[in-house]
Amino acid sequence: MLGPGEFDDRTLAAVRTLFAAELVGLAQESVDAAVTYAKERHQFGRPIGSFQAVKHTLADRHAQTDAARLPAHWAAATGDPDAARLAVQAAGDAADAASADNLRTHGGMGFTWEASAHVLLKRARTRRALLGSSARQLDAIAGRLLDDRAPPVGRVGVSPLPRSAAPARPA
Fold first, then answer.
1. CB-CB contact of 135 with 85 (8 Å)
2. What does the DSSP 8-state code read for residue 168?
3. How far is residue 168's CA from residue 150's CA, in Å, rounded to a whole number?
4. What is the pTM of this model?
5. Cβ-based neighbours of 30, under 8 Å, separated by 6 or more
6. Which of 74, 96, 126, 146 has the most C-beta neighbours closer than 10 Å?
7. Opening angle at CA 163, ends 161 and 167, nearest 5
């Protein structure tokens, strides 16, 4: 996994930004492949893309992929390490969800190892394993924000609440 120690923050931010851009592209490719297949595949005399479950799923993945694109652009424009972590988190979630839904849209054929839907899923999961989970990225951002702006919480002798908000002690 990529982490501090071997690289400085600026280098890690650049690498994360590149992976975020790749993951957004992978998510878009997965959505496009699923939409194309949903238009071509017919069941019960009509395209499977006309069924509500498929339509709504693909619309959700399109919106999620589009929403992941903005943090990737922001990270590329600013070079900020927190922006890069946020971009990786959003892009990783979008790529995971889009590639999994692409595989499900393709049905049994998508589950074969050689199918393009399965290849996209493996690429998304491999990148996520390299970069770390969404929770890991968000924890790192929260840790940096809380360390910079808030007093230490949970240390012996330091109450996280002001005295007026502390619970009353029993008599």
1. no
2. P
3. 24
4. 0.76
5. 61, 95, 98, 99, 101, 102, 117, 120, 124
6. 96
7. 75
